[in-house]
Amino acid sequence: MSETIKNFLYLNRKAPYGTIYAWESLEVVLIGAAFDQDVSLAFVDDGVFQLTKSQNTSAVGMKNFSPTYAALGDYEVKKIFVEKESLEERGLSLDDLQHLTWEDEDEDWAEKDSIHLVNRAEMAAIMDDADVVFSF
Amino acid sequence: MKFAIQVNEGPYQHQAADSAYFFAKAALEKGHEIFRIFFYHDGVNNSTRLTTPPQDDRNVVERWAELAEQHDLDMVVCVAAAQRRGVADEGEAQRNGKDATNIHPRFRISGLGQLVEAAVQSDRLVVFGD
């Protein structure tokens, strides 16, 4: 659709069900995948809750959209950055998050981890490197 | 510079809609170009022509429409977000079996691809909202 390739960063800052930002952010990511840009996702602040495993929304009567994150690898989303400090401040660790992977076609479809833990300074550099930041 | 603007909040509830408007107006006055204004999340409510604020208050919807008229702006409302929140044009109303429309004619309903395209084509994407 376009020859221009930009570094797209989708910045997710909010918990998944209190507001609709998380879900509608994910919808942009899925649609945006058709544009063949260089895509990264970042999760900071309460946004880290979006990736937690074993989400159960039955009591709040909302759709549990968390299984969608596992499909991101199929949409060529291979870089998911999670801020370490945000996890720690909320008593979370990498073990509390879904194990998200992508398949590397150059290495016989080897499964590789999509999630990278980065500290706050590294996250700032990632934001600085992005051409476009979609902030949700 | 060529700007894309994303408005994520509804009118009156949140100043983001006002700030986005003033930013767009100032950018245009300085001779910059606005590739597209994209309304997402509750921002889609900026487009309903049924909005009727008290007479002594600003009319956010009309204000957008006038700016768009003056500068031939492309103002796009996300279809998925609009469907959730009951913002409809003729086509959407028919497709979804609804008995009314409410979108202001200066706005158009389209897909999220329009947001991504605007981000690709513009020098800066400026997002207004929480």
TrEMBL record, chain A:
<dbReference type="InterPro" id="IPR027396">
    <property type="entry name" value="DsrEFH-like"/>
</dbReference>
<dbReference type="InterPro" id="IPR017462">
    <property type="entry name" value="Sulphur_relay_TusC/DsrF"/>
</dbReference>
<comment type="similarity">
    <text>Belongs to the DsrF/TusC family.</text>
</comment>
<dbReference type="Pfam" id="PF02635">
    <property type="entry name" value="DsrE"/>
</dbReference>
<dbReference type="InterPro" id="IPR003787">
    <property type="entry name" value="Sulphur_relay_DsrE/F-like"/>
</dbReference>
<protein>
    <submittedName>
        <fullName>Sulfurtransferase TusC</fullName>
    </submittedName>
</protein>
From TrEMBL, chain B:
<comment type="similarity">
    <text>Belongs to the DsrE/TusD family.</text>
</comment>
<dbReference type="GO" id="GO:1990228">
    <property type="term" value="C:sulfurtransferase complex"/>
</dbReference>
<dbReference type="GO" id="GO:0002143">
    <property type="term" value="P:tRNA wobble position uridine thiolation"/>
</dbReference>
<protein>
    <submittedName>
        <fullName>Sulfurtransferase TusD</fullName>
    </submittedName>
</protein>
<dbReference type="InterPro" id="IPR003787">
    <property type="entry name" value="Sulphur_relay_DsrE/F-like"/>
</dbReference>
<dbReference type="InterPro" id="IPR017463">
    <property type="entry name" value="Sulphur_relay_TusD/DsrE"/>
</dbReference>
<dbReference type="InterPro" id="IPR027396">
    <property type="entry name" value="DsrEFH-like"/>
</dbReference>
<keyword id="KW-0808">Transferase</keyword>
<keyword id="KW-0963">Cytoplasm</keyword>
<dbReference type="Pfam" id="PF02635">
    <property type="entry name" value="DsrE"/>
</dbReference>
<dbReference type="GO" id="GO:0016783">
    <property type="term" value="F:sulfurtransferase activity"/>
</dbReference>
<dbReference type="GO" id="GO:0097163">
    <property type="term" value="F:sulfur carrier activity"/>
</dbReference>
